[in-house]
Amino acid sequence: MFPVGGVEVMLLGVVLAGLVCLGLVAALRPFAGTRWAVLVGGLCWSLAVIACVTLLPADSAPGIVPAETRSETCSWDVGGPAPAGFWIFSGGQRLLNALVFVPAGALLVLVLARWPRLMVLTVPVGLVALGAYSVAIEIVQLELARLDRACDVTDMVDNATGAVLGGLLGLALAPIVRPWRSGRRYRA
Question: Structure pTM?
Answer without folding.
Answer: 0.83
